[in-house]
Amino acid sequence: MDVKYILPFLESVKSVLEQFGLSDVKRGEISKRDIMHVKTDITAVIGIVGQIRGNIAYSMSKDTAQKIVSSMMMGMPVEELDQMGRSAIGEFANMVTGNASALLENSGLKVDITPPSIVFGQDVYFIISSVQTLSIDMETPLGKIEVNIGLEI
Amino acid sequence: MIKRILIVDDSPIIHTLLRKTLEKHDFEVCGDAHNGREGVEMYKELKPDLVFMDITMPIIDGLEASKLIKEYDGQAKIIMLSAMGDDDIIGQAEELGIDIFLKKPFDEYKIISAISKMI
Amino acid sequence: MDKKFYQPFCRSTKDIIKEMAGIEIEGMESMEEEEGEISSMGVSSIITFAGTRKGRLLVDMELGLALYLANTILGEAYTDAMDRMVLSTVSEINNIVSGNAITSLNNSYSMDLRLAPPVVFTGQDMVISIPKINSLSSQGYTEYGKISINVAWEGGNK
């Protein structure tokens, strides 16, 4: 997978979190996988169609998810992920992927994003692509967000 | 002579299923390609008698791969085998000179009768 | 959104499982509005699509049914849900079901829909939530286990 397709997603995680006042987002470990084994609590997955196809899955702990929702809501305390909280995590996945698709479009690739789904459950095995999935840990002040990129390119 | 067939599809399930059907009828599966680019490369290398080509695939799709194969070999015989088959896609396949367009799922009869029309 | 945008997925699920594995799905005739979230029965697959509208098909089934489908379609004896071939069977079934359903929607209503690749997953106690989007579900039964589908369209079904 060409790095020029990967960077927009990582940049977007950073820039979306910056919009909520969170700086100091760093790229951590990168790995390649056939089957994604998620050990955190929450995965938001969203599809891409158009000149490139694929799925992006963002996995994180419940604690990180609650903190993201809280910062999206101007610091309002979030004790649990109710309907509104889950909706906010979907919105976060939407914003990051939408932002990335705009960056891809700037480089001449027309893509569209599809509705996000959120999967709760520890110890879940995923396949999100018929090719290899690239998994990148983004270390944020709110905890780790694992960005799994399964682009069919 | 045993006819040699190339399968181009991103699903391992389709490879397994098609291979079973084809081998049962004494065809040889000479290659398994998992994306459009691999399909074009393997076509050039293996010169199969026939190609089964999926459409939505990584790297380059089946329509683009068929175009490249037809440019390389105007006589290439390609059967499209896709879960997607709306009028727009079938129109594009026809323009490329694809003779047979099969929709997934498939059964033995569908596959064998399509082949007998081609070779 | 009109029922006609949901119904093709029910029909397609029944037809394709019958055609590929030779089993009948009982039920799965009507669709009910889904409230909130869905507890997975074992193995789930999601395919999303976009065109003039955006939507999603979730196919969820019990492990026994997933294993039966893989074993019947591929002629091997798989026993583990985590086996790549079992997961790939479920995602390929979803791919073909969605492909057929959106082909008919594209031809009837010029929706220009294209599929994202299938996502498939398995694990214990999984719950799937589809935020901010109304969806309809339908349940079916087979000799080998239960299956359900959930269809969601952005813009909703109101």
Description of the molecule:
The complex is a heterotrimer of chains A (153), B (119) and C (158). Chain A is built from three helices and nine strands. Chain A is of the alpha+beta class and 153 residues long. In chain A, α1 (3-19) packs across α3 and α2 packs across α3 (83-106). Chain A is globular, with a radius of gyration of 14 Å. The model of chain A has no long low-confidence stretch (mean pLDDT 92). Chain B has a single domain, classed as Response regulator (Rossmann fold), CATH 3.40.50.2300. In chain B, 46% of the residues lie in helices and 20% in strands. Chain B has five helices and five strands. In chain B, α4 links the parallel β4 and β5 (100-103). Chain B is globular and about 35 Å long. The model of chain B has no long low-confidence stretch (mean pLDDT 95). Chain C is an alpha+beta fold and 158 residues long. Chain C is built from three helices and ten strands. In chain C, strands 1, 2, 4, 5, 6, 7, 9 and 10 form an eight-stranded antiparallel β-sheet that branches. In chain C, strands 3-8 form a two-stranded antiparallel ribbon. In chain C, β9 and β10 form a beta hairpin. Chains in contact: A-B, A-C, B-C. Chain A binds chain C through residues 34-35, 38, 45-50, 53-55, 57, 83, 86-87, 89-91, 112-130, 150, 152, and chain C through 36-37, 40, 44, 46-50, 54-56, 58, 81-82, 84, 87-88, 91, 114-117, 119-133, 152, 154.
Keyphrases for this structure?
heterotrimer; A: alpha+beta; Chemotaxis protein chec; seven-stranded antiparallel sheet; two-stranded antiparallel ribbon; B: 119 residues; alpha/beta; Rossmann fold; five-stranded parallel sheet; 5 strands; 46% helix; 20% strand
Oligomer: heterotrimer
Overall average residue pLDDT of chain A: 92
Strand order of the largest sheet of chain B: 2-1-3-4-5
State Rg of chain B: 13 Å
Distance between the termini of chain A: 6 Å
The CATH class of chain A turns out to be Alpha Beta
Shape of chain B: globular
Tally of individual domains of chain B: 1
Elements of chain B, N to C (H/E)? EHEHEHEHEH
